[in-house]
């Protein structure tokens, strides 16, 4: 950590890290001046926020359903948890094939439904790469989200729902004013965890798109990796890492504020 | 069937459909991986996709061991996952005990540091660790990866175990002490059995972490024979020379152990994780 901070002030080559020249704030200046920094930051924020929202929405839907269904409970539960148990690299390999332009099942299915008959280049079309990446990400993250939300839902006392129903509240109102406040702490924790995972995620982005096309999926982490190990600029890479760290600390602070507020609101 | 029942059934129908849809979306890519592994190369590139393999031959499995170092890679993955699980549990259980039971001044600060490490992007530490590991000659070395994975999974393990130890009444330990138990006996005979579910949950978590890890493996390992399956399979994809059914067969071999492992202990891990996540 501290070594990272120190490195970020130096000009260090990856092949020979013992030789490093102190360059002060040059790396930081270079980073903030470079035309690729802001886009990378934007990509990171877009990727993180959309994947978190997606995982929460899909996860919540799944959790609500799992909480209701009586039939095939075990089967649904097992099916839904499978994506989480599969290793990210294997997941990436499967999805590369599923989204294959000529022979992938997604394009075949879209063609069969008459929605599209071109060969969509999912991971190399600049406007499709991010949506495709988000689909894969949400597919990977919603199972755990829904399981944790489910365990929170099950801790909501049934009497609360029943008394609200007797008072004439609709299902949606019960969800909004009874269920959500009861499981709010869990939602907060899940949001924080998902955001941190999204900011940290490297494996599937790198394997699916390598940050391309045209840097449309280059998050800060991907940029850090590329600068340090493809271009061999360890010092510059560490600088990007520092910016990423500040970002996650900032996020944690927001989380603390929000959870303090929630606690205060409850009392 | 009475009208009332019918109406109820119709009302449930959208939900049942949604259940089906979600299950389908969850399971389909994994099913597709199996399907592809069993297809022949010509079947894969038909104009209309084959949803079911025509014959169950060995498919990609026939050649996966000769084409890829998959056996070696799985062995490496297992060494990394198992080594880091063992090491992190051994260290974390005592750290968690200390954090939970002893009172000392820097306790809050120490907890905060543990929490921050969970926030850190691993990628931030790749560079400094790389520089450090070159000096320690831990680059291109499985031991290096065991150490790194242990370091990254330990905070989470400590959090889960500390939460579990917090629920065990201290009086139990005091009683055992009076009965003449040694400090280590207390741990082994009283504490560990009581927090066993959490130990299992954190062991699974650590194992999965080591099994799935990609970033450090791809930067720290240079030789193909020393790669774990995650980076091994990923590089195969970059080379594009290997037929897809073989890649998929390799991916299946890599995916099956964690899935089986997971199914066996599903219930326990979910409750353990849920309590850990809420506390963390």
What this model shows, in words?
The complex is a heterodimer of chains A (267) and B (280). By secondary structure, chain A is mainly α. Chain A has one domain (34-232): MetI-like (MetI-like fold, Orthogonal Bundle), CATH 1.10.3720. Helix content of chain A is 72%, strand content 2%. Chain A has helices at residues 2-7, 26-33, 37-68, 73-85, 88-98, 105-112, 129-153, 158-166, 171-200, 203-209, 220-230, 234-266; strands at residues 10-12, 20-22. A two-stranded antiparallel ribbon of chain A has the order 1-2. Chain A starts with a helix and ends with a helix. Chain B is mainly α and 280 residues long. Chain B folds into 2 domains: 3-44; 62-279, MetI-like (MetI-like fold). Chain B has helices at 3-38, 41-44, 61-67, 70-101, 107-119, 122-135, 142-166, 170-178, 183-194, 196-212, 215-220, 229-239, 244-264, 266-279. In chain B, α3 packs across α13 and α4 (70-101) runs parallel beside α7 (142-166). The longest helix of chain B has 36 residues, at 3-38. In chain B, 40% of the residues are buried. The mean pLDDT of chain B is 77. At the A-B interface, α1, α3, α4, α5 and α7 of A face α1, α5, α6, α10 and α12 of B.
Describe how the helices and strands are arranged.
The complex is a heterodimer of chains A (267) and B (280).
Chain A: H1 2-7, E1 10-12, E2 20-22, H2 26-33, H3 37-68, H4 73-85, H5 88-98, H6 105-112, H7 129-153, H8 158-166, H9 171-200, H10 203-209, H11 220-230, H12 234-266
Antiparallel strand pairs in A: 1-2
Helix pairs in contact in A: 3-7, 3-9, 4-7, 5-10, 7-9, 7-10, 8-9, 9-12, 11-12
Chain B: H1 3-38, H2 41-44, H3 61-67, H4 70-101, H5 107-119, H6 122-135, H7 142-166, H8 170-178, H9 183-194, H10 196-212, H11 215-220, H12 229-239, H13 244-264, H14 266-279
Going across the major beta sheet of chain A, what is the strand order? 1-2
Radius of gyration of chain B: 24 Å
Helicity range of the residues of chain B?
over 70%
Q: Low-confidence parts of chain B lasting 5 or more residues at pLDDT below 50? A: none
Kindly give the count of domains of chain A: 1
Q: In angstroms, what is the radius of gyration of chain A?
A: 22 Å
Structural class by helix and strand composition of chain A = mainly alpha
pLDDT averaged over residues of chain B: 77
Question: How many extended strands of chain A?
Answer: 2
Distance between the termini of chain B: 51 Å
Query: Helical segment tally of chain A?
Result: 12
CATH class of the largest domain in chain B: Mainly Alpha
Mean pLDDT of chain A: 76
Most strands sheet of chain B: none
N- and C-termini, Cα separation of chain A = 39 Å
Poorly predicted runs of chain A: none
**Total DSSP E strands of chain B:** 0
Q: Given the C-alpha coordinates, what overall shape of chain B results?
A: globular
CATH fold node name of chain A: MetI-like fold
CATH superfamily of chain A: MetI-like
